[in-house]
Amino acid sequence: MNDDGAKAVAPFRVLHSSDWHLGAQLAGRRRHEEQRAFLDWLTETLRREAVDCLVVAGDIFDTTVPTNQAQRLLYDFLVSVARGGACRHVVLVAGNHDSVSFLEAPRQLLGALDIHVVAEIGEGPEDDVFVLDDASGRPALIVGAVPYLRDRDMRRQAAGETAADKERLLLEGIAAHYAKIGRRAEALRAAERGRSGRRLPILLTGHLFAAGGRTALDDGVRELYVGSLGRVPREVFPAAADYVALGHLHAAQTVAGDPGVRYSGAPLALGFGEAGRERQVLRVDFAEGGPVVEAIAVPVFQRLARIEGNLAELGREVAALVADGESVLVELRYTGDEIVPDLAARMEDLVEGSAVELLRVLNPRALAQLLPDGRERLSLGELEPAEVFERCLEENEVPAEQREELRLCFAEIVAALQAHDAGDGDATT
Length: 429
Ligand SMILES: [Mn+2]
Prior knowledge:
This protein has helices at residues 32-48, 68-83, 100-104, 107-111, 125-128, 151-154, 163-196, 311-324, 343-351, 364-370, 385-395, 400-421, and strands at residues 12-17, 53-57, 89-93, 115-118, 129-133, 139-144, 202-207, 209-210, 231-232, 243-247, 253-255, 258-263, 280-287, 290-297, 303-309, 328-334, 356-362.
């Protein structure tokens, strides 16, 4: 090693995360403390790991109109990262939960801090593909930032389209966009090779449901696109990409077994269904022979527990949690045979004065007793819209051959409502 700048350059290091869902609540309970603890941990991790660039692949916020507290979480974090020098660049892309206009608004301001925000596709690919430099000021990484691609951005709706047409056109639109971004990235790579002879790695982002992806029930993932639409095959991502940083699925996973195309997963459990799953962020080193990916475990900042059982079992498990003395948020489901109408009150008595919080007490037997046909019922709040629709189909004995088309129509209506929720700038209408 010498001092004339010729010393070995460390590989450019990216930290890939996604699906923070800042402002997300759990059964109506706010979770800002936990979200702040994660961001504090992340700042520390960026510094400790000497990360050059943080990439967040969508769903920064949980809702299109984040609370002031949720906004503050993000901006405090970004300032501490930028001012404190925790890492050199930050790339934020929008997910399906984010409002395009909300993320776009501070774009210029954040740009001054070397924080790149891409909330919607630009006028041309040159807007979304850029080169990041390393600590010595040399070009080091080409980023093709692709946010969540909304159906309406991809194509024009045509009257009389069948569901299959829609699916095909949407996937074609997504593929065409990635191809365009890939070509632009390759052009920048060729230009740099011409200048310096160096091959720059290419990182692409995405917020979508890749084909074969795993999700878990109640893991907070909102169904994207329409019905089964938008299961994006691996081949859509250009071969020129060294790494594809994905968001949307909350469980960390690779796509089609490719270690260079992957989901970091959400850093915090967003539903009780995710309780207990290991969380991670991904450290990606762009070395000579290709990217080297290492998972860094995210600590548990708030314990969650889901307990099922008869009265004795619930009592025993709750008592054990109380004895632990640790803060834990709990969902209880009673599965015993006898009717216990005062279950919630009984359980509340057990946890009184402890660090155990019962966020949800499900008592389907007692509910069934109150209903005329005596069947076990779930409350609406426990079901996703698609599940409610499924039950309607069942209830009305809709013939099987009609169901698929009806499901797609229903999913399309729900997607349209959600897009309207996300209504850029006209959230009040
Ligand atoms: Mn998400």
